[in-house]
Every structure is written in C-alpha cells, then in structure tokens.
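[Automated response] Your request has been received and processed.

Submitted sequence:
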Amino acid sequence: MTKKFYATTPIYYVNSVPHIGHAYTTVALDVLARYKRLKGVDVRFLTGTDEHGANIEKSAAAKGVSPKAWTDEVSAKYKEMWKTLNISYDDFIRTTDEKHVQVVQAIFEKLLKSGDIYLGSYAGKYCLSCEQYYNESEILEGGLCPVHKRPLTEVHEETYFFKLSRYQDALLKFYEEHPGFLSPKFRANEIINFVKGGLQDLSVSRTKVAWGIQVPSNPKHTIYVWFDALINYITAAGYGTLICQDKTLHEAQLKQIRAEKFEDLWPADLHMVGKEIFRFHAVIWPAVLMALGLPLPKKVFAHGWWTVEGEKMSKSLGNIVNPAEVAAKYGTDPLRLFLFREVPFGQDGDFSMASFKNRYNSDLANNIGNLLSRTLNMAAKNIGELPEKIEGDYPLLQKAAQVEATIDKAYEELAFDKVLEAIFGYGGDLNKLVDEKKPWMLAKTDLPAAQAVLLELVACLRHVAVWLEPFMPTIAKEMQKRLLPGKIEKYAPLFPRLEDK
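Generated structure:
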C-alpha cells in the first residue's frame, strides 16, 4: 500500500473553549488536505484534544464537575466548532481514549527499560498555565513566566526524567541534514540555538497531579501532560499494534487499538502547530522518536499568533474571537478565506472586523462575485447555454496553466497567502478583460466576438471555482454548479456587499 499524506494539527488543550487561534491552525490544515485530495493524494488528517494535567483539574473543579465530565464537554465543543468551520478531518483523537492511554504507558515502560527514562528528583520554577518547568536563563525579571508573564511556582518533587540531553548532537545533525524540517525557515535558528545552548533532561512525571496517565510500574506518578500528548501522533497512526507485540498489553487491550499499518502513515508528512509550541514539537518530540527508534516527521511548521484589534487575545480584555459567531453572521467560507488572505502564513496577524469586511467586499463581492454575476447574466442573454468544453485561442485561458503552476508551488511552501494572491490576481485579469472588451456593447455590433469573450470568461471562471475550493468548499461548489454546461439560470449574488451601519 502507498503511504498516505499524514498531517496533524496539535491536539488542543481543553482547559477552555476553542477560539480563532485554534481555528487558524485547523482551517490551515484543512485547506492543505482539501488541496491534496483534489490532486488525487490519499490524505489522513488528524486532530483532537489534549485532556490531562493540572489545568484540567483546576477548570473542572471551578465548574464543580469531574475532570472526565469537563473534558467530555469541551472536547465536544471542538468537534462542534470543526463541523461549523467545515473541517474535513479523518480522525479525532482524545488523550483520554483507552487506546492512547495504553500506548503511552507501554512507551513509558519501554523507555524506562532502555534507560532513556530514569527516576530522580527535581526542584525548579514551574508555570502552572504552561505546565512546564523553566530554566533560569528563560525566566523573566521578577521570576515571571516568559509566556504568561505571571509568577512561577517553586516545585520540589520526585520525578522521572527523560534523557533529552542524550539526543542533543543527534538533533543538530538531523536539522542540518533535513533543512525543511524546521519551518518556516525564519523560525529555525531559534530552535537550533536553543539546542546548541545545551539540553537538560526533561521531567516527565508528576506526583502532585492526579488527573493524568499513571506510570504502570509506579502508580503514584502520573505522566507529564506534554509527554503524553505528543505521543498521540503515533497512537493515531497505529503504533500500538507495534509496541504491543512485546506483550506489554493484554489481548483485550490490544483490541481497543485501531489496527492500521503504521508504515502506511508514519513518518508524518507535516505537524502544523502554533509558534508557542514549536519547541515541544521540534526538540522534545523528535528526541522521543529517536529513543523509540522511529523515523522523524518530515516537517514541523509553526505559524504566528493572532491579535484582535491590535491587542493580544485574553479573557480579561473580553476580546476572544469566537469563529462560530463570525461564521454565523458572515458565512463560514468568507471567514476561512480571510484567515489566509490577510497575512503571510507563518507571520503574526491581526483580526479586526473592519479588515474582514474590507477583504470581503474587495475580494469576494467586487472581484469574484461581481465577475461571476456579470459573466453569467451576459452569457444568458447572448449565448443561452454553456457548452461542456470551451477551447480556442484564448490568452487568459492559456494563462490558467501558468497560474496553476504558481498555486502548486505556493502550496508546497505552505504559502496560502500566495495561493490566494495568484487566484485573485487572475480574477483581476478577468475583470480587466470585461472592462476592456465591454461584451455587453460588443454584442450589439459583433455578436460572435462578444460570445468569444464570454466563453473565455466562463472557461477561466471554471478554473477559479476549483482553485477556491480548498478555502471555500461550499461556495466554490456553488460556483462550479452555476458554471456547469447547459441552460443558464438566474441566481442571487454569491456575495452581497457588506455595508457599514
């Protein structure tokens, strides 16, 4: 069997409900997955939820429910959000899934036996929100967390360590030999310099956090939430069927692990993550895979953050953008498109309703929507029926192959903004053709010439409708329907202009 294109989002932490940042990562991977499928690629698209750790205990206690009841509720909200945003994932994993729990335990014991995990004790500064220890060099002035800018907690506990330091040289060698692994390139130096600065062994268990996966050989320890979470990528790929061959698990437990050929999926082609978790995926996760003797993913891509109206999203500021609310008011597809039209993918971006409305009106209402309406209205009047094949010496139709090559190259680079730039640039060319040729006037003096212009526009718009499908699956299908061969019907505008109230 041919290996599938295996791509993943992070699994999202269920201490709170999904927001625009989670949507950004997930829609990005959905766009890529839909594009790959259009090209005939067999895709496996994984997403899911990360459900253990102290923050989950805290959130559940605040709501007066059990951690499992809380994770059930919030995980369901992620699934609901992905349905709203038309996410075409193939698999959804939860770290409370029994198949995952058993594989994490088996891996922990395997690495304990190999000496990659050992028992020790730890004293250090810990961020409860990050669920991460920080070195003195990383801590901000005043003993603050570098991410949350809050005071760190001094923690002393017995812990198991993963020998991360053992893999420092191997990681640096891998980065050098696989320059596409750390992406985008401008973020690579941050990781390389961190590893060159010296890796310390990583604490991978907690004795003071009850809500987690127990270490089988020492049940007073629960496995560190990040160590548990990262393993999801191979659990979902069927790694359980391999690790369980050493009889670590009972036959009854084996049945709960999806039987799929691990090599059909692994190594992952792409882990799509936000920049704040790049280090976990680019340093810790590869080291764990090396310890297990498994191939490393081909690429980890870390995109930027979204601010809202120039401010960082926070509950205290009350500026958390709920994608479902924007989609309900303006449509799912325009929101999906906006996320990648506004800023280069990988960079930080700012979400404002003014920018959203401007993009909607300029790109959708004025460019593509108006072009489609004008073309079909004029074609209905001057042609009557659309033919199945449109061939001829049409310059813009010939240019479509060149535009498609540009689009393919941009997808390879995960440059979704460049994909859209090419599409809307082509749309601009088509609008220019209408303005120059004026087919409505030309029809009065030279009907065949006017018909030729309209046929060229229809043929080109058929390409545009396919190119837009990964970003706007529902609206693109509607465009394709309107451009089908046969009698032209009268349609309402695809994108009514948004007026400022």
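Summary generated for your ticket: Confidence is low (pLDDT under 50) at residues 246-259. The first helix runs from residue 20 to 38.
If you did not submit this request, please reply to this message.
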